[in-house]
Write a structure and sequence with these properties.
Blueprint lengths: L16 H50 L6 E8 L10 H13 L3 E10 L4 H17 L5 E10 L1 H6 L4 E4 L4 E3 L11 H7 L23 H26 L14 E3 H6 L5 E2 L2 H8 L5 E3 L6 H25 L6
Parallel strand pairs: 1-2, 1-8, 2-3, 3-4, 3-5, 4-7
Antiparallel strand pairs: 5-6
Helix pairs in contact: 2-3
């Protein structure tokens, strides 16, 4: 039947036609309100289900992170991606996972599974220092670093703190060096006829400005900062590897090697995967994941809004030549 056939018929010859018209309008308005109310209820129920699903996901994720294993096992923590405060491989979350892994009395050993090209020297240093602290606190519980596709620069910095390091024969290992990159647009601005206006307080406050020509004294100063950071990196590797490291003059040059070459240079102790280390080295088949991961709500928030700020921050860091272990 259709909606319009439900309308009240108005007799044009009826003396009460005005009242009939008012009644018809009122009935149609009432029907429209009912339809709007039904749609309103539908959308409210949909929103309620959506929010409930998120909360359930958060609760379930929280349970995964907070669960405590009560039988003997190997604890594993995954370090994946660029090491930075605003990435999944950030020091705060990794340290939380490592602490939980060491603190559990049923974990026989800890595996740090690394797949990282490097990143922030500060974040890598935090993780390195915490590993050394936990090793001192739990001397009977070893930490094994296992490098996957790549354990370079900051990724290797962290691995160097481990009691033993393993990698696949084709893993990329090393790159013990420091880099800071930027761009120079001075000649381009001259060609375009663009005038740079920058106001600073301090003789060298704008020395990393990509729109200004380089000065020799400022370049030498920046190289001294990079060299000092490189020495810190070298010292950390030497402390971690000790006499196992074969320093042939190239180990600390920033070059990178595959797993077999890294084994020859003493950068790793053996070849194998995390499951191999658990089964053959630690002698335990049961493995439990202690990696701290973001809740669904945190992941949604990051993708929805924070990514914009990260993009702006990355652009600013690129222009300023932020120091990276890569």
């Amino acid at each position: 039947m259709g909606l319009f056939k439900e309308k009240t018929e108005i007799d044009p010859n009826n003396e009460h036609r005005d009242w009939q018209l008012v009644s018809a309008i009122a009935q149609e308005s009432l029907k429209e309100q009912r339809r709007s109310r039904r749609w309103g209820i539908f959308f409210k129920l949909f929103a309620c289900v959506y929010v409930t699903a998120i909360l359930v996901g958060v609760f379930q994720q929280s349970n995964v992170n907070d669960y405590v294993a009560t039988e003997e096992h190997v604890a594993v923590v995954y370090l994946e991606g660029t090491i930075a405060s605003d990435q999944a491989a950030n020091a705060s979350d990794l340290i939380r996972g490592l602490r939980s892994a060491f603190e559990n009395e049923y974990s026989k050993a800890v595996i740090l599974s690394i797949n990282s090209p490097g990143g922030s020297p500060v974040q890598a240093g935090y993780i390195y220092d915490e590993i050394r602290r936990l090793q001192g606190k739990y001397p009977d519980k070893k930490l094994y670093a296992v490098i996957g596709d790549i354990g370079a620069s900051g990724g290797y910095y962290v691995a160097a703190a481990a009691d033993e390091i393993y990698a696949d024969k084709s893993s990329l290992v090393g790159s013990i060096g420091v880099t800071a990159s930027s761009f120079g647009f001075v000649n381009l601005m001259e060609k375009l006829g663009v005038e740079r206006r920058q106001y600073t307080s301090g003789e060298h406050k704008g020395f990393l400005d990509p729109f200004a020509p380089q000065k020799e004294d400022e370049t030498l100063f920046w190289e001294s900062v990079l060299n000092s950071t490189h020495e810190q990196f070298i010292d950390a590797v030497q402390q971690g590897r000790g006499d196992r490291l074969i320093n042939d003059g190239k180990v600390f040059s920033g070059l990178i090697w595959n797993g077999e070459q890294a084994l020859e240079k003493g950068l790793v102790d053996g070849l194998g995967s995390p499951s191999y280390v658990a089964r053959e080295v630690i002698k335990e088949d049961s493995v439990y994941d202690y990696t701290v991961r973001p809740t669904p709500f945190e992941e949604f928030s990051k993708r929805f809004g924070v990514a914009v700020g990260q993009g702006l921050g990355a652009a600013i860091n690129a222009s300023l030549g932020t120091i990276q272990l890569r």
